[in-house]
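Sequence design from tokenized structure. All designs in this work follow the same two-part layout: the structure record, then the generated sequence. An example of the structure record is given first.
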């Protein structure tokens, strides 16, 4: 299936009116019109926006070139506006110079794209391709034939659609499109002409090209009988690596020395007359610091694994005063919950009758002065905790796996694995990126934008986008 011209979908709808006002390709006027400058200004404006949008994504060296191109575009837009606003007083030379400056900005932007090949310039490449459709309708501007964009920007070697479009300004073939000749790696290919572009099918042999860029030469005809044959315009088609995904899989098992189980000292929580009712929450880290407090352990990793109760301490003012009570009401790995009550007791008479003769009860007892009570909850906590400076895992296997586009690769993990680190080093010959994810036996799936990982029965499946 043939790709439709890219310029229909990239945002140059505003060009249609400007183009309609331009002279046709068969016009004999060599003067640059204000309408033509308006169209060029719109094209440069879109390119300037595309340049501005990509600055933050670039490395320092590329950022400098983008800023230079962006400054040139901004200056050119200002000059174009000046000429257009002062149309009545502008000369033919001024209009032609303004047009030439605009072409220079477009050509330098294309060179920036061509020299890089990185994904961050995809939108700029499309913007330049769209501009070519407008510029192609501007005849007789005194500028050389110029390549503005190559589409597709990058091509996978397994692509079934091998049509390549070279977008640009080609006044040399305005009257005879068949006069253009194109070679791919030195071999001629059949070429067709459309608005703002020439296009051809990349030969199948070229897809097997060992280099990342296939050389394309565009031979344009003489400009006149007395002129020399033009120097070919050189450009290229970028071919992405067959297997841009390089995965390093590092399987590991738990290191038993990294974690210990340890008892803390006995811990006591108390309620008494000064604080007769308490609900106590003790988190694992605080309890560990209170009962162990050893700097060789990482208290933040402490988990409670057992609570062993000890005999409680308690007392009350008199035998018939309310009983104090308390205990551990619950615990998890993260915390212990304790409830304690130590009620106060007022002064009162404690009656103790005794048995007299003939079954007669003899009244008796004593005076209780009242007072408080106390209750102490005692227990020994047991923790698991990480040892500082000791690796949590031990490496057991390392593999390197190469993968292609939209593929699934499988690798078996050792039986004793508990976790695996998967590192991607992506390199498609133009863009490079690295990313890392971790899968564990308890959580055997993970995803990042470039790939997914799933482990089933110690078999790791890596799926690429």
């Amino acid at each position: 299936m043939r790709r439709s011209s890219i310029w229909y979908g990239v945002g140059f709808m505003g060009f249609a009116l400007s183009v309609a006002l331009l002279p046709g390709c068969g016009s004999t006027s060599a003067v640059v019109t204000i309408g033509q400058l308006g169209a060029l200004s719109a094209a440069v404006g879109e390119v300037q926006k595309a340049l501005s949008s990509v600055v933050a994504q670039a490395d320092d060296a590329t950022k400098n070139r983008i800023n230079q191109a962006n400054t040139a575009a901004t200056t050119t837009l200002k000059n174009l506006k000046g000429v257009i606003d002062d149309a009545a007083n502008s000369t033919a030379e001024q209009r032609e110079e303004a047009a030439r400056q605009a072409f220079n900005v477009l050509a330098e932007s294309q060179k920036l794209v061509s020299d890089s090949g990185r994904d961050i310039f995809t939108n700029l490449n499309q913007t330049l391709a769209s501009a070519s459709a407008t510029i192609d309708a501007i005849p007789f501007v005194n500028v050389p034939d110029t390549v503005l964009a190559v589409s597709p920007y990058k091509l996978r070697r397994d692509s079934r659609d091998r049509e390549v479009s070279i977008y640009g300004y080609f006044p040399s073939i305005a009257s005879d499109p068949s006069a253009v000749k194109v070679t791919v790696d030195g071999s001629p290919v059949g070429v067709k002409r459309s608005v703002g572009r020439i296009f051809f099918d990349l030969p199948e042999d070229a897809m097997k090209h060992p280099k990342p860029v296939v050389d394309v030469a565009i031979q344009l005809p003489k400009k006149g009988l007395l002129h020399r044959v033009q120097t070919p315009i050189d450009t290229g088609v970028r071919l992405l690596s067959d297997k841009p995904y390089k995965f390093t899989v590092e399987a590991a098992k738990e290191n038993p020395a990294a974690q210990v189980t340890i008892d803390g000292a006995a811990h006591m929580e108390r309620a008494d007359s000064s604080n007769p009712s308490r609900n106590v929450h003790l988190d694992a880290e605080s309890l560990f610091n209170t009962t162990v407090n050893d700097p060789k352990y990482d208290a933040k990793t402490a988990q409670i694994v057992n609570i062993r109760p000890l005999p409680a301490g308690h007392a009350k003012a008199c035998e018939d005063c309310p009983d104090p009570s308390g205990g551990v009401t619950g615990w998890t790995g993260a915390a212990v919950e304790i409830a304690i009550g130590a009620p106060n007791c007022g002064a009162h008479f404690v009656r103790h009758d005794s048995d007299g003769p003939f079954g007669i009860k003899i009244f008796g007892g004593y005076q209780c002065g009242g007072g408080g009570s106390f209750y102490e909850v005692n227990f020994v906590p047991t923790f698991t905790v990480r040892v500082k400076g000791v690796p949590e895992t031990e490496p057991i296997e390392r593999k390197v796996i190469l993968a292609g586009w939209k593929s699934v690769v499988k690798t078996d993990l050792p039986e004793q694995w508990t976790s695996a680190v998967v590192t991607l080093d992506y390199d498609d010959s133009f863009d490079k990126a690295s990313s890392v994810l971790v899968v564990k036996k308890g959580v055997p799936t993970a995803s990042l934008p470039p790939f997914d990982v799933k482990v089933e029965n110690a078999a790791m499946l890596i799926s690429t986008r």
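The helical segments are 15-20, 34-54, 60-85, 92-116, 122-135, 284-291. We note this feature because it recurs in several other targets discussed in the main text.
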